[in-house]
Design goal:
Layout lengths: L7 E6 L4 H10 L7 E5 L6 H17 L7 H10 L4 H8 L7 E5 L2 H7 L5 E4 L4 H10 L8 H12 L3
Antiparallel strand pairs: 1-3, 1-4, 2-3
Helix pairs in contact: 2-3, 2-7, 3-4
Length: 158
């Protein structure tokens, strides 16, 4: 399994509209190395996307994946659902002013980053993470990371 060392998770903005950004992310990606964009407002914390990536890699390695694409599999885990349309609606990029960029490859990220007007490491404050967790129905924040991973696992049982 690739692991999360070397992955890139950035809060970003751009002058380019979301549809073009998605096309640029796709062109910077290959089968195994990719750039993926999310609505930053629904991402709880770094573990939310890192856990989704690890789970996507693990299901592909075990042959338990729902989607043939690692990118789509990660999207399903981030959204904690088995439905691709629902996942895109829930966590897909909504606007170009505030989104999250995930890449599992510096080469892919470097091919994409030229379209960004701003990019900073994604490290939300705990208060922001707690507020976003409430959007997901998570009320208790004592063990937030464990709860996120539990919800991802449970999404595969539904």
């Amino acid at each position: 399994m690739p692991g999360t060392n070397g992955v890139i998770v950035k809060s970003a903005s751009s002058e380019i509209n979301p549809a073009v950004l998605l096309a640029r992310a796709a062109s910077a990606s290959s089968r195994k190395n990719f750039v993926q964009l999310f609505d930053r407002q629904v991402i709880i914390n770094r573990l939310h996307v890192l856990g989704a990536y690890e789970n996507a890699c693990a299901t592909h390695a075990a042959g338990d994946n729902i989607s043939k694409s690692l990118v789509m599999e990660m999207l399903l885990f981030v959204a904690m659902t088995r439905q691709i349309n629902e996942a895109v609606e829930m966590v897909g990029i909504k606007d170009n002013r505030d989104f999250l960029v995930f890449s599992n490859s510096k080469k892919s990220y470097d091919a994409f980053k030229g379209v960004l007007s701003k990019a900073t490491d994604f490290n939300p404050l705990k208060s922001q993470s707690y507020s976003t967790a409430k959007k997901w129905g998570i009320r208790e924040t004592d063990h937030l990371d464990e709860r996120i991973l539990q919800m991802m696992a449970l999404s595969r049982l539904q």
